[in-house]
Design a protein that fits this description.
Number of strands of chain A: 15
Distance between the termini of chain A: 52 Å
Helix content of chain B: 10-25%
CATH class of chain B: Alpha Beta
Largest interface: A-C, 39 and 34 residues
Radius of gyration of chain B: 13 Å
Number of domains of chain B: 1
Strand order of the largest sheet of chain B: 1-4
Number of helices of chain B: 3
Structural class of chain A: alpha/beta
Shape of chain B: elongated
CATH architecture of the largest domain in chain A: 3-Layer(aba) Sandwich
Oligomer: heterotrimer
CATH topology of the largest domain in chain A: Rossmann fold
Chains: A alpha/beta (355), B alpha+beta (79), C alpha/beta (253)
Number of domains of chain A: 2
CATH superfamily of the largest domain in chain A: Thiamin diphosphate (ThDP)-binding fold, Pyr/PP domains
CATH architecture of chain B: 2-Layer Sandwich
Order of helices and strands of chain A: EHEHHEHEHEHEHEHEEHEEHEEHEHEH
Largest sheet of chain A: 7 strands, mixed
CATH class of the largest domain in chain A: Alpha Beta
Shape of chain A: globular
Radius of gyration of chain A: 21 Å
Structural class of chain B: alpha+beta
Number of strands of chain B: 4
Number of helices of chain A: 13
Strand order of the largest sheet of chain A: 3-2-4-5-7-6-13
Strand content of chain A: 15-25%
Order of helices and strands of chain B: EHEEHEH
């Protein structure tokens, strides 16, 4: 039987990690996501499932512990918030290049710099365009409810192992901190399966396994890049997720994810009272981005408002999808401010309908 | 009393001619050859093979593990 | 005479099968090769190849996994102790070791080094200290001696300006999470024998789960020091050993 609980988003991530059969969590405290580590420590997952939980000395150490444990074929997860995720970028690049599965959670806060502890969506470029060095992508899942904070942990592990790639759950301080009802999935057993590539000690009968991202010969390194890009293409074809709200007869469209998409749902109702038919396309995967669906909707609607808690980052992908066919404008708040439904409606009226 | 007899075989093509084995040899068996290997190194060889006791000192310090050491006890050598 | 001696049954020393047939990428005379060999011999003699995972650093020995015939991971610069922590925590019954140079372990990776030694992770750290950055072309290392020339201290290390050489091994010996801390060398036959014993002890101690076993190997860098291999070993004895004295610093209780 599944179980209903009232939980914070961060707690849901932690509980879901245990239930998904994770082997280890390595992390470092940072607001607004410290509840993940706190909850895990309090829950004694070592007694519940045998899961390892360790507070690292830094995010740099945490991501490299993830690398080590992931290289043993284990199910591993870490979480942090924007400045901490910045510190992890070198390790994430290594993990992507070495094709190790793992789950990374970014509970985004306002930046740049030390910024603020309030929610933000200003890490979109970082998570979807690279973040660390070299050509790589993360699968980026953007939950917009505490329920999805729980569910997406399981999905993220599935994608991570299916494609041998790091998967990021990109949320923000609002969803991390807010409490909602969650239907928790049932406890899954920790896997005993050892992937063929894992470094667990070399028996006589097989070649040694090596986890590395180094190929000093340019020809070989280019091959590695081609292999990665082929994988990303496959992911784009198979893992592009989105949700549509009131899009069927929409004359205008909002594109928003995470917390912004929740607020936009209220904006839809407010707009309808004024006789404005506006729909919402909510990317669930920020990478791969649902560009085909946006392109399709661009044939139907008169204009698009990209709503983000940033200076306008996702709008670049929306514009690329629309290819200049219709007007695309950005509305957002920054530095930890959350837009209100009315603000968004006003922006829609001024920038798209009247503009 | 018969001496312990030894011999070494150097993997000539992998030897880098670093000279460390030559200096580690207590009986001055080894030297660097006047000729060079495929990599251009003056490789180590047994210049005075009769003096080798198979003590393994050369192999212990060889960074490239290119030396194999053989040894026979005196009575065995007589056979 | 040789013909009668050179027979398989008379072999008293040959390269361990735990070293691959790949030619080492190190300069002629570099101690890395000898250090690699004694570690592989220990793993071979303990019969733990199937239970050992090594972690290679960034630096000259970045390609250690090309030469060591065991499962290995290559870590980001300085992060080998964190990577090894991840491995050992999920595979606590396996033997895990890091192999790092002075730049990796004592400069960029100082935080990771200190913290694994303080938490008392149960793995072995092998620390190759040659007082210089070999891979990048002979720059000053945290362990470069006062007055010693390098490409970034071309007039000698001026401690007033560049700081003092770091005795990382003495430093971590003070931490409660280390159980065995020793400093060795591999430039002479007797040094090699002692160093191998120390490595063996370090690996054996993993079974007891008493914390980090740490073996520093003071080594040469003839290319970086601009000497012949034999000269560099002499220079090491005359200059490195007084600052980095040989022997055990901390023994298990």
């Amino acid at each position: 039987m599944s179980e209903l609980r009232l939980m914070k988003g961060n707690e849901a991530i932690a509980e879901a990690a245990i239930r998904a059969g994770a082997d280890a969590y390595f992390g470092y405290p940072i607001t607004p996501q410290s509840e993940v580590l706190e909850y895990l420590m309090a829950e004694k997952p070592n007694e519940r499932t045998g899961m390892v939980v360790l507070q690292a000395e830094s995010e740099v150490a945490a991501i490299n512990m993830i690398y080590g444990a992931a290289g043993c074929g284990k199910k591993v997860i870490t979480s942090s918030s924007s400045p901490g995720i910045s510190l992890m970028q070198e390790g994430i690049s290594y993990i992507a290049s070495s094709e190790l599965p793992c789950v990374l959670v970014n509970v985004v806060r306002g930046g740049p710099g030390l910024g603020t502890i309030q929610p933000s969506q200003a890490d979109y470029f970082q998570s979807t365009k690279g973040g660390g060095h070299g050509d790589y992508h993360l699968i980026v899942l953007a939950p917009n409810s505490v329920q999805e904070m729980s569910d997406f942990v399981k999905n993220a592990f599935d994608y991570a192992f299916k494609y041998r790639t790091p998967v990021m759950i990109q949320t923000d301080g609002a969803i991390g901190q807010m409490m909602e009802k969650v239907e928790l999935f049932n406890q899954e057993k920790r896997s005993k399966e050892i992937p063929s590539w894992a470094t667990v000690g070399k028996p006589k009968e097989r070649e040694r396994n090596i986890i590395t991202s180094l190929d000093l010969q340019a020809e070989v390194m280019e091959k590695r890049n081609h292999k990665l890009q082929a994988k990303y293409k496959k992911i784009e074809e198979n893992v592009t997720l989105f949700e549509e709200v009131a899009c069927d007869d929409a004359e205008y469209l909002m594109v928003a994810y995470g917390t912004s998409s929740r607020i936009c749902q209220k904006t839809i109702q407010l707009a309808l009272k004024k006789g404005i038919k506006v729909g919402l396309l909510r990317p669930i995967t920020l990478w791969p981005f649902p560009k085909k669906q946006i392109a399709k909707l661009a044939e139907q609607v008169k204009g698009i408002l990209s709503v983000e808690m940033s200076t306008g980052q996702m709008i670049e992908d929306v514009k690329l999808a629309v290819e200049g066919k219709i007007k695309v404008e950005h509305f957002g708040r920054m530095g930890g401010m959350i837009p209100s439904p009315d603000e968004i409606l006003t922006a829609l009226e001024n920038q798209i309908i009247g503009g | 009393m018969a001496k312990v007899k030894g011999a070494v075989v150097v993997d000539v093509e992998k030897c880098k001619g670093c000279d460390i084995c030559v200096h580690a040899c207590p009986t001055d068996v080894l030297a660097l050859h006047n000729e060079v290997n495929g990599k251009g190194y003056h490789y180590a060889y047994m210049a005075n093979p009769d003096e080798c006791t198979g003590c393994m000192n050369c192999a212990l310090v060889c960074p490239d593990s290119v030396i194999t050491v053989y040894r026979v006890k005196p009575q065995k050598a007589k056979v | 005479m040789e013909d009668t001696i050179i027979k398989t049954e008379n072999i008293v020393f040959k390269k361990t099968e735990l070293l691959t047939d790949n030619e080492l990428s190190y300069c002629p005379g570099c101690g890395h090769g000898t250090a690699h060999r004694i570690i592989m011999e220990v793993i071979d003699e303990m019969g733990i190849q199937a239970d050992t995972i090594g972690v290679a650093p960034v630096g000259c020995s970045v390609l250690a996994y090309d030469f060591m015939n065991i499962d290995m991971q290559q870590a980001a610069h300085g992060r080998a102790p964190a990577v090894a922590t991840g491995i050992k925590r999920v595979l606590p019954e396996k033997f895990v070791f890091t192999y790092q140079g002075d730049g990796d372990l004592a400069a960029i990776g100082t935080a990771e080094t200190i913290h694994v030694c303080n938490r008392g992770e149960h793995f072995t750290m092998i620390f190759i200290n040659n007082g210089i950055y070999g891979m990048t072309g002979g720059q000053m290392a945290p362990t470069t001696l006062p007055g010693m020339k390098s490409s970034t201290s071309p007039y000698g290390r001026d401690v007033e300006m560049m700081g003092h050489p770091l005795k990382m091994t003495e430093l971590i010996a003070n931490l409660p999470g280390t159980c065995f801390v020793t400093r060795q060398a591999v430039h002479t036959p007797s040094a090699v024998r002692k160093a191998k014993k120390a490595v063996r002890k370090a690996f054996e101690l993993q079974k007891e789960k008493k914390g980090i076993s740490f073996v520093e190997i003071v080594s040469n860098c003839n290319s970086g020091w601009k000497m012949t291999p034999v000269q560099s070993n002499k220079w090491m004895e005359d200059n490195m050993f007084p600052y980095y004295p040989m022997g055990d610093i901390k023994l298990p209780e």
